[in-house]
Amino acid sequence: MAAHQTTSTSTPGFIDPMEAACSRFKDFLDVKRKKPRFTTLKDLETEVKHLERKQTGSSTTFKIGQSVDPIVKFLRRHSDAFDTMVQANPYPAALIWGSLKILLNVSHLMLTQLIGQFTVSSTS
């Protein structure tokens, strides 16, 4: 639908931005009733769940997170034992284990947020 040309401006052929926006809006209205098509809360929830499933299935980050999650859980579960072993010979092991423990904690937080975000929203 072409926008109406206004005659109130001094420039010939000028299309008023407000009228152009209104005409685009009218194109989105229901043709029979000329009323907006309303979306229910149920429609919105369904669409959000559909988009989350689509994103979860195609997200490389989510797939990597799922494959790394068991390793991170294992290392976190046994981190106290590693701490004790490192105390026996702290010089080389402390540098290595300290760095790994930082990465482990950061990855655990990221995985918890990433995986928790999808599981919480898909169960509600």
Automatic annotation (TrEMBL):
Domain of life: Eukaryota
Name the UniProt record assigns to this protein: Uncharacterized protein
UniProt source species: Orbilia brochopaga
